[in-house]
Structure formats: C-alpha cells, structure tokens
Write a structure and sequence with these properties.
By secondary structure, the protein is an alpha+beta fold. It has helices at 65-68, 108-111, 115-118, 182-193, 204-212, 229-252, 258-275, 282-299, 303-317, 328-339, 344-352, 354-368, 382-404, 409-436, 438-476, 482-507; strands at residues 3-13, 45-60, 72-77, 83-91, 94-100, 124-139, 145-158, 165-175. Strands 1-5-4-3-2-6-7-8 form an eight-stranded antiparallel barrel. Strand 3 and strand 4 form a beta hairpin. Helix 7 packs antiparallel against helix 8, helix 7 crosses helix 14 and helix 13 (382-404) crosses helix 16 (482-507). The radius of gyration is 29 Å and the shape is globular. It starts with a strand and ends in a 6-residue tail after the last helix.
Length: 513
C-alpha cells in the first residue's frame, strides 16, 4: 500500500567541500561553509541526526519519458524511508512523494500512476545515486521540527543511455510537515549571505542525467507563438491532451476535483474538433471524438449521481420540519446507494485498459501529424472568428427555439441542447481569445454565465425525475410521499424562474467577436 507525503524543499550548490564528519552544532565550526543556522528567526537549536548512507536506483523508459515530465521513480535503501518513491511535481519546489514498500520490481501502485506517460514501454534502471547524507534538524524552542537540512555527497553512475559517472555535494533544506513555506525564505537568506546559491538542477536525477550522459528527451512544444489558424487550434488541442495525461495520476489517487477537471478536458477537445472542423479534418477527428465521449462517460459514472444527491440533500435540509413527512432522509440514502453504479476501482481499471491508452496514442498521432485543412494556413483572424460566429449563430437559434416553446418536456429538451451548445461556444471562444483578444474573452464570460443559468435548469429537470422515482418507491412501500411533492414543486419553480430569465440573459449577450 502506498503512502503520500507532500515534500517542500530547496536545493543549493556547494562550492566548498563539506566535512560530513565534523561536529555541526549549528555554528560555522560545524557544517563547513554554512552559517550559524541558530540565527535563523525561530530556530532554537540545530540537532545532529548523524550520517545516512543512501543507495537509490532511478527507473525510467529508455527514452526518459518520466524525466521529460519532471517525474522521478526510484528504489532506495538506507535512511529512515527505504522503499520505492515516486515524485510528482506540484509547483516549483513542491512535489508529492508516493511511497511503497521495498520489493524487487516496481510496485503496481506506482506503475499505474505513471502509465499515462509510460504507456506500454518498459521501466528500466537508468541511474544509480550513492549518497552520504549528513542530516541536521532545525527545531524551535519546544523541540518541534521546523526543517531538515542535509549535506549530501553524491556519486552518480549511469546504468543505461550512457556509462559516465559524476560527483558533487549539495545542500537540501526540506520543510517539516505542515510547516510554513515562508520559513524556507529565512533559511535561504542566511545561506545566501554565506555565499550559497540555489541549485541549477531541479533534482539530483536531473543533474545526474545531465552529467553522466545524454540529456532527457523533452516533450514536444511549440517553439514559436501561434501564427496560423492551425497553430492556434493545435496549441489548444495540445493543452487539453497534456491536461488529460497530467491529471491521470491525480484521478487514480482520487484527488479532489481531478475527475471533473479531466472530464472538462475531454469536453474541450470534443468541442474543438466539432467547432473547428474547418481547420482539422473531421474524418480523422470524429472517431477520436467518439472515444473522448466514451471516456467522459466513464469519468462521470459516479459524479453526476453525486451532484444530484447533493442537490436533493441540500433541498431536503432547507425544508421546515412541518413539511417533512415519512422517512425521507433514509429513503434518499437508500436510493442514492442503489444508483451508485461506478467506483474508483472501476475507473482505475478503465485508465489501465487498452482503449484508454489507444485514445492517448491517437491524440499523440494527431498532434504529430495534424490532419490540417486548407483554412488552417490562414494567418488572419478570419478562420477562427468565423468558427466562433458560427457557434454563436447556432446557439442563438437554439435559445430562440427554447423560448418559443411552451413549458414542458419539449422546452426542457431544447434548453438542454442550448446548454450543450453554450459549452461548445465557450470553449471555441477560449481557443480564440489569444488571437481575438477582449471580444473573445468577453464572450467566454458571457457563455459561463449562460451555462450556469441553463445548468441550473437541467439540474432541476434531473432532480424532478429523481423525485418522481423516489415518490413512486415511497408510495409502493406505504410511506407518505408528501415531502417529495413539495420538493418537486420547488424544483418546478426553479425551472420556471430560469425560463423567465432566459430571454433577458440572452439579450444581454452581444454575440460573436
């Protein structure tokens, strides 16, 4: 079973040799070249924790896909955290370290987290780092840990992709769990005064790869700013592909909002392929759109039901006690549990499956060899603006149709179609914003507002369907169905208010840029 630790640290170059055997009590007579760290505000003492001998073997694909994405996977012995470690970047100097017990092969708990990067390639040993780590704890007046300072003497050996070796010494300052990141600034201030500077390498592995053999392959990026319509569309497609790949580990770990964010990325891609069919050949993109729809459906198996249950629970909680009749809370819980058809385990199985990996490969292939149409070569705003205007025109027709219909199922369906088109128009405008500027950005904001309004209506429709189902079950069980009727009536009122507000809301939108 894997453990997770948020790691906040900074690394520094050491130009002078550090005597790892010296008594580093905190003053200059201790760790050679370091200032007296007891003078750092908040530090009461520097505690000697001894020297640990660490032996770490880093794994990657032959073409170093993990290193290219700033991910590190290692098997380490020695020290107090021996085992397998996977480090996922969060932000500058911040990483999530996923730990698993020692084993001879890479644990499945970790291989899944790198699957979107590795795909079907083998993970092989690429570098071995042997480190003598001299550790000191910076503690406050109560003995509480503020940060760990270590001086590492490192020897790197290339295991594949080269046969070089390298040696260096570095200082690492890691913030204590739940510590204030501002404390690291105070430590750095003392180190800078002593002539110590930040490391030019993001990690020991990055430095080892640089100094012992060829540098890791970097993922493809657009070197120049987008110029043509095709450039703009492909840049947006690439960003969404990257989002799916980068969110994959977070979805597997059940990180908050990760599933929703990946689902949004799939929607953005589907909308882009549809809206910009004048740029990318739909004969190629339509099959990919179908697979993206499948993936979005898998991602939403539990989420849609969760949102609906939250809405009904909140509505029930807002009712005055006299309007509560029968075991409505228990009935709602039973109903929600029975309709929960998915699970995190099922979703992980989808992400491990061949269909999902084939989808990622298809997106890679599209970006590598884009199916560009003639309009993709347009270097003016014309092609992009035309696609956005086309979406706005279609949306206008759908809104007009919905407003013209009488209240009922037909209007509900028309508003739902308008809501889906609103999302597509929003994403088309997002793509256009870097090129068209303020008008497109304004349209994005307008579409967000309209999407929220229409989304409230759709949520009301789904809530009424659920309440009808609940009332039927309650009646069949001999329970009082009065409360479900009250809630149904309130949802009808919510929908009517949206329908009444829709003409004015649409009228306030100026239209396409």
């Amino acid at each position: 079973m894997a453990d997770i630790k948020r790691e906040i640290e900074r690394k520094y170059e050491v130009e002078v040799e550090v005597d790892a055997d010296a008594d580093a009590g905190g003053g200059p007579e201790g760790l050679s070249g370091l200032p007296d760290l007891t003078r750092v505000p908040g530090v009461a003492a520097v505690v000697d924790k001894g020297v640990a001998e660490l032996d770490a073997v880093y794994y990657d694909t032959a073409d170093q896909r993990l290193a290219a994405a700033s991910l590190t996977l290692r098997r380490r012995t020695g020290g107090d955290d021996a085992g397998w470690h996977l480090k996922l970047p969060v932000s500058d100097g911040v990483r999530d370290e996923i730990r698993a017990p020692l084993s001879d092969t890479v644990p499945r708990a970790l291989t899944g987290l790198v699957r979107s990067r590795v795909r079907d390639a083998d993970l092989v040993p690429v570098v071995r780092l042997l480190s003598a780590r001299d550790v000191r704890h910076l503690v406050d007046a109560s003995g509480g840990l503020l940060a760990e300072v270590s001086v590492d003497r490192v020897r790197a050996e290339r295991l594949s992709g080269g046969d070089g070796t390298a040696r260096w010494t570095e200082i690492e300052v890691e913030l204590a769990d739940e510590g204030d990141p501002a404390f690291l600034d105070k430590v750095e201030k003392k180190l800078r005064k002593a002539g110590v500077r930040r490391s030019g390498s993001a990690s020991k592995l990055a430095r080892a790869l640089s100094e012992t053999g060829r540098r890791p392959r970097k993922e493809a990026v657009v070197a120049a700013a987008p110029v043509t319509a095709g450039d703009h569309v492909l840049a947006y497609v690439r960003a969404q592909r990257d989002a799916i790949v980068e969110l994959d580990p977070a979805v597997r770990r059940d990180v908050h909002d990760a599933v929703h964010s990946m689902r949004v990325a799939t929607r953005r891609l589907r909308s882009t392929f549809r809206s910009y069919g004048n740029v990318l050949d739909r004969a190629v993109t339509d099959p990919i759109r179908d697979e993206l729809k499948w993936l979005a459906g898998e991602l939403g198996v539990d989420r849609d039901q969760e949102v609906l249950t939250e809405r009904l629970t909140a509505a029930l909680g807002a009712l005055p006690r006299p309007l509560l009749a029968g075991p409505v809370r228990g009935r709602l819980r039973t109903w929600a549990h029975a309709r929960r058809s998915g699970s995190r385990r099922r979703l992980v199985a989808v992400l491990d499956g061949g269909r999902y990996l084939d989808l990622l490969v298809s997106l890679d292939a599209l970006l590598a060899t884009p199916p560009l149409r003639r309009a993709a070569a347009d270097t003016t705003e014309r092609t992009i603006a035309k696609a956005v205007r086309k979406d706005v025109d279609k949306l206008s027709g759908l809104v007009g149709q919905a407003v013209a219909l009488p209240p009922g199922e037909g209007r509900d369906l028309a508003i739902h179609e308008a809501r889906k088109k609103t999302k597509r128009t929003r994403y088309a405008a997002e793509l256009a914003a870097p090129l068209l500027g303020k008008p497109a950005k304004g349209l994005v904001g307008d579409m967000k507002s309209l999407q929220g309004l229409l989304g409230e209506h759709q949520d009301s429709v789904m809530a009424r369907l659920a309440l009808r189902d609940l009332a039927t079950q309650a009646h069949a069980a001999g329970e009082n169905a009065f409360t479900y009727g009250v809630l149904y009536g309130r949802e009808e009122r919510n929908a009517a208010e949206v329908e009444a507000a829709l003409p004015e809301a649409w009228g306030a939108i100026k239209g396409a840029p």
